[in-house]
């Protein structure tokens, strides 16, 4: 993906928006809009070409969860949503991931991690903080009735099922490559095929699906 990375920051706290704008702009990321609530965030997505939305969960008028649902409902061409939360186990975050968010960040994230996270989510080839996301999914996935294995998993090869299982356990591409004695390029190919076969946007949705279908259990 080429061209400047375009971001909107949605948060009802002016200081948070200003701080994130300063950090991202200093690294060459174009903050094209700010929003004080979910309604403004959805409107920005409809008006402006964007790559990533930094979305606070708790905002007035329309919260980040419902805003995320509306944004991702448009299809694959819509921007990726990176959720912002004060608490690493905020119960809204699991719902946000199932609604289509591509990951989440704590608001006390370091500048380096913020920039890296936005770039990772835009690229779509890495899951931010996989161990944290896995812990979150493990905590909340059991609230859904345990389904039988999703029939779509039958389209995966045994190797792809193995990759999906390890991915859902929080392994990065480098860790997957080392565990399976493969190159990182081969791992990326497996992950891309898994996402394509299952119709998933990114690795976060793959983690959620692995838990919800019973491929792995908390």
UniProtKB/TrEMBL annotation:
Organism superkingdom: Bacteria
One Pfam entry name: Response_reg
InterPro entries: CheY-like_superfamily, NreC/VraR/RcsB-like_REC, Sig_transdc_resp-reg_C-effctor, Sig_transdc_resp-reg_receiver, Tscrpt_reg_LuxR_C, WalR-like
Keywords assigned by UniProt, alphabetized: DNA-binding, Phosphoprotein, Transcription, Transcription regulation
Modification 4-aspartylphosphate occurs at: 56
Keyword Transcription appears in the UniProt entry: yes
Domain (HTH luxR-type): residue spans on this chain: 149-214
Chain ranges of the Response regulatory domain: 6-122
SMART domains: HTH_LUXR, REC
Record-linked SUPFAM superfamilies: C-terminal effector domain of the bipartite response regulators, CheY-like
Protein name: Response regulator
Source organism per UniProt: Actinoplanes sichuanensis
Taxonomic classification: Bacteria, Bacillati, Actinomycetota, Actinomycetes, Micromonosporales
């Amino acid at each position: 993906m080429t061209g400047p990375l375009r971001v909107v920051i949605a948060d009802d706290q002016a200081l948070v928006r200003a701080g994130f704008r300063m950090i991202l702009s200093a690294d060459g990321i174009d903050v094209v809009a700010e929003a004080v609530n979910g309604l403004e965030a959805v409107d920005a997505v409809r008006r402006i070409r964007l790559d990533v939305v930094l979305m606070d969960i708790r905002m007035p008028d329309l919260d980040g969860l419902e805003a995320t649902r509306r944004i991702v409902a448009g299809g694959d061409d819509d921007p990726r949503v990176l959720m912002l939360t004060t608490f690493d186990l905020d119960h809204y975050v699991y719902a946000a991931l199932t609604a289509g968010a591509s990951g989440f960040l704590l608001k006390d994230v370091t500048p380096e991690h913020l920039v890296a996270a936005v770039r990772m989510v835009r690229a779509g080839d890495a899951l931010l903080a996989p161990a944290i996301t896995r812990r979150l999914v493990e905590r909340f996935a059991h609230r859904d009735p345990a389904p039988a294995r999703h029939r779509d998993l039958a389209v995966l090869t045994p190797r792809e099922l193995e990759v999906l299982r390890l991915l859902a356990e929080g392994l990065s591409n480098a860790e997957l490559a080392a565990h399976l004695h493969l190159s990182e390029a081969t791992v990326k190919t497996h992950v891309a095929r898994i996402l394509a076969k299952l119709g998933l946007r990114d690795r976060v949705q793959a983690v959620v699906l692995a838990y919800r279908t019973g491929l792995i259990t908390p």
